[in-house]
Description:
This protein has 17 helices and 14 strands.
Amino acid sequence: MKKIFAIGIALLTLVSCNMDFYSSDAMTSSALKENPSSAVYTTDGIYALFKDNLEYKGTTEAGNTYLRHLFQLTESRGDNVTVSGYSEDPFTSPYRYEDVDYGKNKTYTWWMAYKIINAANSNIDGLEKAVEADPKDKQANQLLGENYFFRAIAHFHLVTLFARPYVCGKDLPGVPLHVTMASYSEPTTRATLEEVYNAIVDDLKKAITSMDAGQPRGDASYVSATAARALLARVYLFMGDEHLQDCIDVCDELDAVAPAYVKGVYSLADLQDYPKATWKSKETIWCVHYTYPDDHPSPEATIGAMYICQEYSTNGWGEWYWSDELIELFNRYPDDRRFQAYFIYKWYPSSTEWPATGMPANTVVLNNGKKTVCFPVKAEGLDICTTAHVAGLTPNAAGDYVFTYEGTEYTAKKTNVNGYDRWFIDHNFTGDPTFFGGKTPAYIRDDIDEDEGWGFRSNDYMPYMNTKFAWQDGQCTFSSPVMLRWGEVYLNRAEAYARKGEDQRAIDDVNLIRKRAGLPTEAMFTTGNYASRGYESTLDVVLDERRMELCFEGDRAFSVFRNKKTLDRRYVGYHPFTTISYDDPRIALLIPSDEILTSGIAQNDPRKEFVDP
């Protein structure tokens, strides 16, 4: 079958909000060879593709952007966020692991990823000839490396979203692979996972070689050899235990050139300011730089819009909250500046006017120090658990909370779990006898002074919002999302060490991250104390630290599955109260039906379509 690839290779007209770029596809290889400086514009056009909302299927929607969909598709399938209810936004079905093959989030992501690959291929074809003609041309080498990087990261996004985890079997089907212009005239097939990952590694090695011979173009808004190494280290982690030493070696190279700042203690102010100008921070290796107002078509059409809202959704939707168990993980360590920096309470109109630069947590009116007991309850006739809560409580002398719920008295009993305080109700409200041994966890939250009637997860207690994507240029939901940063580099090395059995080195990297977060000496791990804190292995320590450090950045589900762990989604939210094994076929998103109908490639395992209960 001849390749048509209906959602991938039409000529691009790349229009940036700042300037007009040449279309990569409009430049021939010979033209780029004759004038390689033209590739500056075509390469900058690829940067624009990550954030632009192009016309798609005859319409242009402000929220239809590659990065917004990418961050939603990756983070919503983990266990860090809870969604407040059914949404018209297409994230609902992938969040529930009830996939459809026509959702615009997936179809646009697939379409745009192959646009990026196609544009990079066109540039590479010409730039390789330019470098061959003059191997010392720093500009041509730099641009060639950037395009290798773009081709690699787009393939990586596709294979991690639309295929099974590598650890399930490297011979499983991946995604269509395009690493030459000639491939577009060949039949479309799904390469194996091994073939796709090997191509990504090969491209990143070429990117490193090229950019090492080039000249970096500016701040963290631009791809660099450091960014290519950081992505390569991440890719190696996905490829099974045989590449762990490769990951460590790359991270060691990065460590040798890391700014001293990234190993120091991050102040609360540093962390709070980070989302406001990520491209300027030494923590950032690469971000996609959004500019205001050009790249801000709507405050509801950003990554941050789902995490935060202002004035009853006039600025953001605020439909995604911190999951209860993530909050409990941070609650073990009250000195953790990451939590202090990135959580806020839901804002109420009766509170202080929302400041232009952000909202401190103390602007919400609290109820004289009283608390609300929250706990999951199985929703009648549905597969979800909702939050039951009883407000206006104070603990007794033992630290327990006695309350009445639906006419029956219960006690949320304070319990020491591996050195940390938790509360449990000796009654099974969830319907799952394996969940905490049939007991129900109780979450002690701050109490508010009045009920504004917001409904799900917000009457008389505090839902937690996230500000990791907020307040750039004074805009509530606006940021320049970070794709690669130093915190991940050290956690990548820690994970590789842990999987190799080099526990002390893994712990050292974990403690580097914990010290950055302002945690005191007594909160550091040793090879002798992690078991007493409830961990079965050093790897489990690393994975919890990744969960905290990289929460909301699209990492969590991948980290669980590539380590052959089970994702525990038994917490309150509009998703099934269940667990998901690393080998569950639902992990691979359905390939868009447009692609299946056009090229005839095999679909992933069919699933029941989402039906709003």
